[in-house]
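Why does residue order matter? Because the sequence determines the fold. Keep that principle in mind as you read this record.
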Amino acid sequence: MPPTDSDEATMGLAALHVIQGRDVPIYMYGQHYMGVLEAYLAVPFVALLGTTTLALRIPELLLYAAFLPLMYRLVTRLYSPWFATFSVGLLAIGSDRVLKDQLIAHGRTAEIKPVAAALLLIAISLASERSRRRTLACLGWGLIAGLMLWVDWLIVPYLATALTVLLIRDRTGRARLGRDWLWLAAGLLAGAVPLIAYNVTAAPGEGSLTVFWHLNQGPSTSLAARLFGGVMLGVPLSTGVCHPSHCTAAERLWGPAFLLLLVLAGSQALIAVRRHRVPTRQWGRLALVTAALFSVAAYSRGSAAAISPIESARYLSCVLVSLPAALWPLWAAARQLVATRRSGSPSGAGPRGLTGTVLALLPLVAFAALSLDAAGALVTRKDAIAAAATRQAALIRSLEATGAPHLYADYWTCNRLAYATRERIACAVLEPTMESGQDKYPPLAAIVHADPHPVYAFPARSVTDNAFVDYLRGNGIQYAVSDVAGYHVYRVPAGAGVPLRRSRSMLVRRP
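Structure:
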């Protein structure tokens, strides 16, 4: 759990090629804007355990194991130890979207959360002069920031706000500003070496910045649709309160509530800064708030929020780092009311004081309940998820037993088969329009295109499956079909297959 997909398998192919000495990839195949750090982290595990899903997910688990203590340190520094304990407890609850973002090795979402927490933590330590090894801290900050700029730009809001915390220093830190920035810049350049190396040698129009820009210029969508997908679906999904692949009406309300709480938390931090109360701590709180708001605004600006809001919600995975900032006003209000009642103050005594305490605690309890309910809903699907893995294994056995190593299939099937079999099976993508699809690793597709006797395999009664049958019947092509593990596997006479043409949709980023 959760089930694997072709994006994860593509990352696995990159790791496999590194092990075999065939390639030293910089970006994910077919996506020249997302670094393959996860592939390199998985190399020792794929070498040891083979081309399994587990081998790809061990590094993801280790990254989350680092994320939780980093968040505890960060929230303790900015708020309080007990609130940090509560926050880490919430972050340890795995809903469907949170587990997918953290465990599926499809790039960026697993590593940017612990790195965002680390960047903010180091920045706060440097700004408050609590770092004992300033040179090493500055070098390390720059190094991991440079690496993340190579991996993906989703972290930019958190990187920028952490950098702002460094710029707005306490008076005690200003004297050493020059030397610190030299080491930070050196680390940044070192970490960004893959990014720089690729863009120096990339052909015109294929630089990562150009690709990233064009991929974010999607089809025109309405503002209402983008806001609904970004706020009402994206925020609840990414912060872990939604059921698998859908949000109920109550869960969707958390989206605007989250933004309102962030604005409240940011206002409180700004007021505290003006009063000069622990300014570095307040700037750190403001950094968490600003980064989350900017992330949601940037995501809601793009067409993905409207076109594929459920799967594209992973672009907001980093917002989980700011969850404590949103919950802090509720925690602080509840703590204040409890303290008032204990002190025996008239304003906190009696039924009205008790009601206020309950009302302050209720949203926190409701959020925890929604998270637990979402996690429970995911657990009930474990048998179906296990069955999906069983079907993939059965399809592979059938294809290999019948001597059909070259096939056309849908996007979400192709690279899964190639990775699981160490490329004994070569697969090319066929779209429902009967056009060539998004083959992220073209050498495998070339093998299939050159085979005069490929087979075709599609999930039974899927859109592509129905379109393929319609094409065969419409062109009077004879075919044989067999049912294998939930797939329809087709064989057609040599030369009677689909005359492929390049699809324009290949240039559009998939969710």
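The beta strands are 27-28, 31-35, 406-409, 426-429, 455-459, 480-484, 487-491.
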